[in-house]
Amino acid sequence: MQIIQTISELRNTLKTKASIAFVPTMGNLHAGHIHLVELAKKHAECVVVSIFVNPLQFGPNEDLANYPRTLEADCAKLTGLADIVFTPSVAEICPQEQSMTIQPPPIANVLCGASRLSHFAGVATVVMKLFNIVQPQVAVFGKKDFQQLFIIKEMVSQFNLPIEIIAGETVREASSLALSSRNGYLTDAQRAQAAQLNKALQSIVNQTKIGNKNFVQLEQQATTLLTKQGWEVDYISIRLSATLQPASQLDKNLIVLGAAKIANKTSGQTRLIDNVEFRITD
Ligand code: PAF
Predict the structure, then answer these.
(1) Residue 33 is a catalytic residue
(2) By three-state DSSP, how is residue 124 classified?
(3) In this structure, are 142 and 185 located in the same domain?
(4) Is any atom of ligand 1 closer than 6 Å to the C-beta of 26?
(5) What CATH number is attached to the domain comprising 30?
(6) I need a surface site. Which of 52, 115, 127, 147 has the fewest CB within 10 A?
(7) Distance from Cα 149 to the centre of ligand 1, integer Å
(8) Containing domain of residue 244, as a range?
(9) Atom of ligand 1 minimally distant from the CA of 24
(10) Which residues contact 238 (CB under 8 A, 6 or more apart)?
């Protein structure tokens, strides 16, 4: 496995590769990322994993400075799985003079985008740059960040990029908590409590299975329950899984997405997201 820090060295190395699968990450790798790398390996001769904490996708009061940077441990986890780990500098990927950005579609302004204002523009801009640098045939993104996955697919389609986007399933702890780098901000007790977010989403799915299609009421009930359990809920929303538009009672292929903040180790709050796809069968 090679660790490459500059764009020019990466481009030189990739020249000889017949096919490339790419997994962009911000590091602090866990089993969820490893699952994406394993998926990538099935699709190309050469697997490139980037580790880059993207400053453009953090808001002014978010955790950019404290975001865990664990390069040595990450490289140990990738040994034998990835062919190349790309760890570019902020100066090379986000130079001060760059003023052109990707403007994502309006769906980027709802759900997570409603409270994280330029988040998806920051994600899309850096992912577009990484795509242009790596030029993969295949790129793998996790379904835990479902809205991100959707926006990246839209970007690839609308900009005619010759890249196949593959979605990796969310990997969970036994408690059902979705793996996330941000779980590291939680004590063991808070981590156990964090599973309540998935349980709330799952209980909405269960309610729909027994015929309750009052989506607004289901969203409100889950919000109330989580609030009673000490969460500050950002949103709980039932949507169409294909478009992320709000769902009606006639729709079948749905997804319930949630984001909420839970108390963390430092007496602050950690924002977690999760989602469950489901199908109404009647
Ligand atoms: O999902 C992430 O870790 C990031 O948003 C990504 C796709 C690596 C872009 O910085």
Answers:
(1) yes
(2) helix
(3) no
(4) yes
(5) 3.40.50.620
(6) 115
(7) 10
(8) 181-276
(9) 8
(10) 204, 215, 218, 219, 246, 247, 254, 255, 256
Distance of CA 145 from the midpoint of ligand 1 (Å): 9
pLDDT single digits (tens) 218-253: 999 999 999 999 999 999 999 999 999 999 999 999
- Which of 107, 141, 168 is a domain's end point? 168
The CATH code of the domain that includes 242 is: 3.30.1300.10
Q: What single DSSP character describes residue 174?
A: T
For residues 15-38, give the mean pLDDT: 98
What is d(CA 268, CA 245) in angstroms, rounded to the nearest whole number? 32
> Tens digits of per-residue pLDDT, 80-104?
999 999 999 999 999 988 899 999 9
Which residue minimizes the CA distance to atom 9 of ligand 1?
Answer: 123
Same domain flag for 114 and 162: yes
How many angstroms separate the alpha carbon of residue 18 from the centre of ligand 1? 25
pTM, full prediction: 0.97
Q: How many domains does the chain have?
A: 2
Same domain, 131 and 9: yes
Nearest to 13 by CA among 87, 93, 88, 83: 83
| Catalytic one of 30, 33, 43, 119 | 33
